[in-house]
Description:
By secondary structure, the chain is an alpha+beta fold. The chain is built from 6 helices and 11 strands. The protein is globular and about 50 Å long.
Amino acid sequence: MEDFDLYILVGRKRLKLIYSQNRKDLRSFRYENNSFTPFYFFSDNNSSLVGEKAKLKFNSSNNNAHYNYFELIKEVTKTFNFFGNEQNIKLLIVRAVEKLINEFLNEIIFSTKNIYELKDKINLNLVFYSDINENEINLVNDLFKKEGFTKTKSFNYNYLLLNYLDLYRKVGSFKGYITSDS
């Protein structure tokens, strides 16, 4: 049941979960019927939300709704309420991804287990768009490892694309590439 790989595409404004159950084919997980999830997060004493529903809370000025994660983490003492526990704002990305993975486990894997029971067994690949700086990539990678995701790897989207293009020469045999992930 735990024989799957997860890829979380991380950008400043959006998240995307991609999975593989056979180590070959990649499929996009459509959370809330969208291929990309807006990077909004809401949590209070009773529930947590990510994506469009959290965006609605944020737009209605709810103090427990958050947006613009990579700006929020610059306030090193800032916290957020996660089911009654105050946590450092840096952990918001981990909790948002955990929410996505739990939904994936329920909808695709039909698992009775949750992320907290499986996090040390999941092959988690964090793929960062070019709008994320190297120091931010290192921070997020370290956060996931500290939170128990022991099989975490991080990649830069543009480097993956360039390596693939070089390996399979899908765009010809010239030496220069221009990439865009927006």
